[in-house]
What does this fold into?
Amino acid sequence: MVEAWFFQISRLFYQRVPCNKLSRLFYQAMQEVSRPAQEVLPENALIPAKNIIDPVPNHFTHQLSARENYYFDAPAGDKQPDGFFVEGTKVLLVNKTDKFCWVIGPQGVYVLMSPGSLVPV
It folds into this structure.
């Protein structure tokens, strides 16, 4: 609906219609625009500063053969994962142990994950 108003206003503008009529039409068109409600995200929606690498690496050493959950810190107990990488994501392996490894993802996120699905590129 807004597109129709915009088309009408632009057509009237080129026909040199007085500005007061154009502004009235524009105001009416903007009344139809709906905006989402503002929402403050929870604290856990932020990526900790220590887990952001800038600049992002320009080469990657491994690729994931399956979806893999990751954590910003060492998982303790029943801690939910902080996110996941999808299958095929390329990562830079930084440190690897038997149970976990530290990697840098393509967005520059430095995270801990299981090394089970890592395949060398």
Q: What stands out?
A: The first helix runs from residue 2 to 14. Residues 38 and 60 are 38 Å apart (CA to CA).
